[in-house]
Write a structure and sequence with these properties.
heterodimer, A: mainly beta, 5-stranded mixed sheet, 4-stranded antiparallel sheet, about 0% helix, B: mainly beta, 7-stranded mixed sheet
Chain lengths: ~110, ~120
């Protein structure tokens, strides 16, 4: 079973920041938080990952709480092309298997 | 960088025939490759984990004689669905992992998927 809990769906207005929450209260000290997204009928796309520090790249920012029991993925300026299912996964390392939950279906509205 | 390709993207085959799906890491050598299947509106389900030169490790419930995996090199893995049946119709996705750095660990990149339809 997936070790994360995410809302089933979310809406966000185009141009606004999309904040996607994830709970992972049973995360172990050596487990990373990974975020992927999957646009309809395509393979998943890697977004970002982190261990305990906040991370930022060209796609998104990842905010991890101090106790590491939850995190938030932030898409700073959402576009229509960001409509996808977003998956939050915890794993020791992505060289190991990733267990996929149901994810959050994010719909960006014009 | 970090591109994973799959071929074919779509395939239709008759019941009882075999189908081979290729997964290639185009610009990196993959430490490990993974095979998933995904049913409509469902999440990805891991089928097997594959390392170059060794036998694949299959997940519980996945028939290794039906889903043959060959990992010939650090950039190529193949999945053969043998004696295909309509219930094998699904979206098959491969992924490949590489070491991004000592501090950042591994990153796993996914292929675009192969839509298999068995008639």
């Amino acid at each position: 079973d997936a070790k994360t809990t995410q809302p089933t769906s979310m809406d966000c207005a185009e141009g606004r920041a999309a904040n996607l929450p994830c709970n992972h209260s049973t995360i172990s000290g050596n487990e990373y938080v990974y975020w992927y997204r999957q646009i309809h009928s395509q393979g998943p796309q890697y977004i970002i990952h982190g261990l305990k520090n906040n991370e930022t790249n060209e796609m998104a920012s990842l905010i991890i709480t101090e106790d590491r029991k939850s995190s938030t993925l932030i898409l700073p300026h959402a576009t229509l092309r960001d409509t996808a299912v977003y998956y939050c996964i915890v794993s020791m390392d992505s060289n190991y298997q990733l267990i996929w939950g149901a994810g959050t279906k994010l719909i960006i509205k014009p | 960088g970090a591109v994973v390709s799959q071929h074919p993207s779509r395939v239709i085959c008759k019941s009882g025939t075999s189908v081979k799906i290729e997964c290639r890491s185009l610009d990196f050598q993959a430490t490990t490759m993974f095979w998933y299947r995904q049913f409509p509106k469902k999440s990805l389900m891991l089928m097997a984990t594959s390392n170059e030169g060794s036998k694949a490790t299959y997940e519980q419930g996945v028939e290794k004689d039906k889903f043959l995996i060959n990992h010939a090199s650090l950039t190529l893995s193949t999945l053969t669905v043998t004696s295909a049946h309509p219930e094998d119709s699904s979206f098959y996705i491969c992924s490949a992992s590489r070491l991004a750095g000592k501090l950042t660990g591994y990153e796993q990149y996914f292929g675009p998927g192969t839509r298999l339809t068995v008639t």
